Amino acid sequence: MPRRPTAFEVSFPTEDAPPQSTSFAEREREEARASAAQAPPPPVSGRLKRAERDERDRQRRDSRGQNDKRPRRESIPKAYYQESVDEDEEREDYIVIGEDTAPNDEEDQKPIRVLSDFTIYDPKHGNQLISLWELENNSGKAHFRAAGLVRPVFVNEEMPDRRTMKNNRLKG
Questions:
Q1: What is the mean pLDDT of the chain?
Q2: Residue 44 pLDDT
Q3: pTM, to two decimals
Q4: Burial grade of 113 (CB within 10 A; 0-12, 13-18, 19 or more)
Q5: What confidence score (pLDDT) does residue 32 get?
Q6: Mean pLDDT highest for which of 35-49, 53-67, 97-111, 147-161?
Q7: Which terminal residue of the chain, N or C, has fewer Cβ atoms less than 10 Å from its own Cβ?
Q8: How many angstroms separate the CA atoms of 168 and 118, rounded?
């Protein structure tokens, strides 16, 4: 099949045209080179890009090794304490219902109370709940509060039945 003329050759037939080769094989090689130079590179597939990115990430991770001190995201969202209207604020003169109010021989003696269902939170940070580990490792900068149920402990032998004792909601 004969070669088709280019737009330049059709528009300007008298202009100098590139020399034509007489060899059919040589002409095919030139056309192949010209078309290869003009053709865009083949597109990179998404899988190949992803594999390259994963390999780069793996190399970065391996280069850091055990020295990686970056903070990690917490997988569990923070929990917050919601105050209840039926809670009493603990004060120095607060008396739990059923507690012995008789004066003791020792004025410094504090009443013994049983705490249950209590929660520790930080009021300076929107009542965010605090773990026991954070409470134990506190540097003294944070201010913690606790809320829960309180019941008196009786020391005398005429101890009333615990099933009839009411739990008081207390925070302090």
A1: 74
A2: 67
A3: 0.42
A4: middle
A5: 78
A6: 53-67
A7: N
A8: 12
